[in-house]
Amino acid sequence: MSVNADVDPALLPEGRLLYQIDFPIRWGDMDALGHVNNTVYFRYFEQIRLEWYLQSGFAPLDSGREGILIVDNHAEYLKPVVYPMHVTIRMGGHSPGRSSFTSTYTLSVDDVLYTRGSSRIVWVDTRAGKSVAMPETVRAMLTQSGEQTGE
To answer: pTM value?
Structure first.
């Protein structure tokens, strides 16, 4: 669906908005301190990244000759997320190179930003284990002008 123009820009990830998902936090996502464990955020980023990848028409990672690989991951925890919350995660992208681009993420609850993150995504030949040129369709998603896209 198209992104609502009323979304606070502070809730949007850097770059072109590529995808958006909403889901409830699970009790098991929390740690002994009573908030979502810091490693779980990377699973959330992984989930949106894979949903974007598949909805973009690429073969599942275990069945195609090419795929994506993460070479760098970051998260900035602004507020603790706790059960029971319902989160919105948005994925953006920018800075396309020959074989890679930066993906960015925001996690919000009720229009309040809780977490920001980023990853460097590299396109790879899964059999050779080497980077390959990023598909032109992805480059177009990252550089097109006009309305942003989401889920």
So the answer is: 0.90
